[in-house]
Amino acid sequence: MIPERKTRTIHIRDLAIGGGEPIAVQSMAATRTRDVEATLRQVHILEKAGADLVRIAVDSKEDVECLAEIRAQTDARLSVDLQESYRLATHVAPHVDKIRYNPGHLHHHEKTRPIPEKVAFLAETAGEHGCAIRIGVNAGSIAPEYKESFGDDHTGAISQCAADHCELLDDAGFHDYVVSIKDSDPRLVVAANQRFAEARPDVPLHLGVTEAGMPPDGIIKTRIAFEQLLSRGIGDTIRVSLTVPFDDKGREIVEGRSILADIEAGRFRSVPPNFFDGLNIIACPSCSRVENERFIDLAEEVKEMTQYAAEHDLTIAVMGCRVNGPGETDDADLGLWCGPTRVNLKRGAEDVGAYTYDEVLSSLRLELDKLIAARAS
Ligand code: SF4
Questions:
Q1: Dist. CA 317–CA 60, nearest whole Å
Q2: Residue nearest to atom 8 of ligand 1 (CA)
Q3: Cβ partners under 8 Å of residue 304, min gap 6
Q4: Which residue has its alpha carbon closest to ligand 1 atom 6?
Q5: CA of 324 relative to ligand 1 center, distance in Å
Q6: What is the C-alpha to C-alpha distance for residues 161 and 137, in angstroms, rounded to an integer?
Q7: pTM of the shown model
Q8: What is the longest distance spanned by two Cα atoms in the chain?
Q9: 289 alpha carbon to ligand 1 midpoint, in Å?
Q10: How many angstroms is it from 38 CA to the middle of ligand 1?
Q11: Residue 83: pLDDT above 80?
């Protein structure tokens, strides 16, 4: 049984989230927003699978024009991610039902403008167009001031950042908002969401394990977090993030609904023995920013090629683009982020080089061997 949740109810157009409402399931289009036909097809796949809300990435004026076209051709509830440019909200808000901003990205533009003013601007813009807001905090892009004050306490940094941004929206008189606090490690997702829910039991939570990677591990990681949180009455909407081919994106919704049904029926899965030991591959779920469609195959190839190192406690991150790739590979032992023709290889925060999609696996193997040898010596 999923216990009754105690948050207030907010609305994303006609979709009620929080309180006693059913838990909503959502996902994101992975196609290029500029390819209106493909994105509409993707929205349709997700809706058919049972998505309550579909997120679309918008990075440019051209994307905004395409978003308007997409809006005109579908009734699906749409949400948009603002990346570094918070002012894009003015252009996207007329076409969507929800805007997501990441507090960790607000400092990039207009550096001297105080963060509370930027948040008040977002609240006003969303309010004018009847949009809800998601405060989307991510452990891979912690706002600099929280990084500084919390150091290695990532759980503290991300839960406090989320709580502070709730206060900023409250101060702006805006209440139709949800919070998400994500990481690729489900244990951190559980700890941070629990901590936030204690501080703000009234705020609806969007749950997810980001960069969970490929099935089956991506599903297991997500299930671990959802079981622990939802069974304690924490969580009002969910997103399962999986690295799967574009046409298979409906699987995120199907898996999400199946996890919900299992928790509701009290069917909890035991975590496979030593699941958190050994090699951990994290991979982004892909979105319209993916720079080369070979990313999905690359993620699979990395998984296969590195099997020989399965016993070693190492993390390899595979990311689809330059927007989040460089930052979100910093904490991994080895990271790859995709460009249009080359894949950038990193050792921790350090750049190793850029390689063609055909070359990169052998360079990765070389780096992996060096790391294993260094740990053995
Ligand atoms: S890393 Fe880039 S391509 Fe992958 S989900 Fe994030 S923004 Fe999209």
A1: 27
A2: 287
A3: none
A4: 324
A5: 6
A6: 8
A7: 0.95
A8: 62
A9: 6
A10: 18
A11: no
Contact in structure between 249 and 27 (CB atoms under 8 Å): yes
Q: Which two tokens stand for residue 179?
A: 């919070």
Residues with CB under 6 A from ligand 1: 284-287, 289-290, 319-321, 323-325
243-259 tens-digit pLDDT? 999 899 999 999 999 99
Q: How far apart are CA 340 and CA 335, in angstroms?
A: 17
- The answer to whether the peptide bond before residue 216 is cis (omega within 30 degrees of 0) is yes
The tokens describing 275, both together, are: 């699941």
Do the beta carbons of residue 255 and residue 244 sit within 8 Å? no
Burial 311-322 (b: 16+ CB within 10 A, else e): ebebbbbbbbbe
* Nearest atom, ligand 1, residue 324 CA: 1
Read off the pLDDT of each residue in 204-210 and give the average, rounded to a whole number. Answer: 97
Measure the CA–CA gap between 362 and 124, rounded to whole angstroms.
51
321 C-alpha vs ligand 1 centroid, how far in Å? Answer: 6
Q: Which atom of ligand 1 is nearest to the CA of 83?
A: 7
